[in-house]
Structures are given as structure tokens and as C-alpha cells.
Amino acid sequence: MFQSFFTGLSGMLSFSQNLDNVSNNISNLNTPGFKGSDTFYSSLTSGDSAFGTQISGQQQRFTEGEIRQTGNPGDLAIAGQGFFILMNDGEINYTKAGQFIFNDDGVLVDSVSGGKVAAITDEGKLEEINISDVGVLAPQATSQVDFIGNLSTDMSSFTVADVEVFTGLGEQRQYRFEFTNNSATEAGSWSVRIVDDNGADVHTGEIRFDSQGTPVNTFSKVSFQVEDSLGGETTVEIDFGENGSFAKGTSVSGGDTSTLRASVVDGYGVASLTTVDFTADGQLTLNYSNGEAVDGPFIALANFTNLSTLSVVQGSVFEAGDNSTRVIGRANESGLGSILSESIELSNVDLSREFADMIIIQRGYQASSRILNVANQLLEQLYENTRGR
């Protein structure tokens, strides 16, 4: 009879500990990346005798939580398998909660734990993501201008004006291209006069077209020099395309209308970083004020053969056991999921499940306490019987 007191107490203690776990799950219902856990019981036995119950342990539920869009550039979610990798003072941790920000040093960090978000190199090494040195995009000189459209053979001349190119210092220069029909002298020939924005002649060349109206390969390009304010020069090549191709410049009969236009292939001035985002493959994209986009590093993901080797360090941050086997790679590779930008993964706690568990715990606790009550009544009856003799 006395053992029933300890048996009932063990049940009450185990159910109260389980209630602690359920309450923790519910309290983290809105915690991004939080993984709920289950409590497991085991019987206290000795030989053939049972002495109640105890909590044998807890296990995380690693099912995916709902993914919700936030609109915040630093928020990332993983659609599928994998964890983000955090580096913190030599320790490696993992998380599903992609609430990341760039700190004052330009390093991408987890806003909750402060761990540095890892990128993966082509050699498979982990490194931090740092944008402190890419806030300004260095200028790039223009090297090529494509001419697209038709130069009508029925016209004696045609001008393409206001073509802007960049010097090596990022300075803009404006040019005018004057085309004069020389087919009376040489079939399919057009002279090209290049004039700068001050009206000064820069270069004169020749473009030729075959009988089909496509460029002759040896006369399909003209090069000229662009000078910057410090006297430096860069070469710009104008390109009409290849012989037999109508993809760029042509010269066929078009009446009094020519459709030729210039398309500057490259070159830009100094620009500042405006926004950053990540592709579905986890690659950082740096967007600049001049419209240029530069590719950055790939964010690293990790997955584990046995997720039960992960244990909670802090909130939604986990660490791996010594015997864990992990796979590190990029998104959409090696079975790893894809990256969803401006989104976060919410907690995977199911409130209806937690309420059901609470009812079971409450009934179990009441039943265990009832055991103590009945055992106490039996003892009182025993004492009463003893005093009545």
C-alpha cells in the first residue's frame, strides 16, 4: 500500500514535467524556426515489480513549419531539407530561422543569436558573408556598341545620335554616328563618321554589306578611342554583326526609313549598393544604383542523416552531436531545399495537438493524485480499525 504513494507521485511528477514541455511548445507558437518536442515516458521497474513511471527523454519534431512572406530582404526560408549554418566563436550551429541582418561590419548574422551566416566556396569551405568592401561599384569602361536595325539603301545618309559610353574613370561621353552611302563607289559600302559632343571628329571608318544586306566580315566593325579627363584612353568597338546573319545591322531597301539604332553592350559609372537579395539557389545578388547586378557568394546549407543527433542550444538554434553525419552544400543540390527570399519558416507547433496533450496530461495527473487519495483513505481506515480494537 505504501508503494502506491510513490507510484502515484511518480505519475504526478512525470505528467507535470510533460506539462512543462507542452507549455514551452505553446509559448513558442510564434517563434520563427522553432521545433516542438515530444516527451516520452518509461516504466520504473525492478525485476518483475513496477514502481511507477519517469520521463525517459524528449525528442524534437523536425517537420517543416509554415513559410510566410515578410517582405524583409534579410529573411530567408528553406523550402525542403536543410539548415542554415551559423559560425560563432569557432562553434558551428544550425537553424531554420532565417532572420538575418547585415551588422555594422557588413557581415550577415543571425539577428537572434548573433552567429555569422556561413557561405560555401567552390572548394566546399565555409566563410562569412561580408559586403563591407562592395558598397561602391567601381566604374567599367565601355568596350562595345552594337548597331541593330536596317540602313536603307535608298537613303544617302543617316545619323544615330546621343550614344552614351563610359570612360575607364566612369565618365560619360556622348557620340554621334553619321553614315553616308558610298554604294556608287563600292557596292554595299557606307562610310562612318564618329563625332563627339563638342562636334569634333573622332574617327572615320567604313562598313560594307553583301548583296543580301548582311555585313561583310572584314568590314563589319569599326574601333575608336575614348579619352577620359586624365588622358587615359580605352578602345570602343562598334559591331554590325556577322555575315549571313540578320540579328544586328543590315542594309536593304527600306525607302526613306532607316531603323538603325545603337545598343551599348557594357560600361557604367561609379554606383552605390542599393539592395541585396538571394536567388532560389542561395546566391547573394548585389544590386547597384546604376541598375547593375553583381553575383556574390552562395549561402551554405547543411542536412543530417539522423536529425535526432541535434540538440537545442538556444531557442531555434541547434548543435550537432559528435556522432552526427552531415552533408554541406548549396541549395537545390545534394537533396537540399531551395531558398525563399523575404520569407521565414514559422514554428511547427500544432496548437490543437498541444491542447489534446494537455487534456491527457490533466486526466493522468488527476488519476495519479486519485491514487494518493485512495491510498490515504485506506491507511486511515487501517488506523481506525487499529484504534477500535
What integer is the average pLDDT? 91
Measured distance between first and last alpha carbons: 21 Å
Secondary-structure-derived class: alpha+beta
Give the overall shape.
rod-shaped
Rg from Cα: 37 Å
Catalogue the unreliable spans: none
Number of domains: 3
Strand content: 35-45%
Q: With helices defined by DSSP (H or I, 4 residues minimum), what is the helix count? A: 2
What proportion of the residues is helical, as a percent range? 10-25%
Number of strands: 29
Describe the main β-sheet briefly: 12 strands, antiparallel
GO cellular component, one term: bacterial-type flagellum hook
Organism: Agaribacter marinus
Domain Flagellar basal-body/hook protein C-terminal: 342-382
Pfam families: Flg_bb_rod, Flg_bbr_C, LlgE_F_G_D1
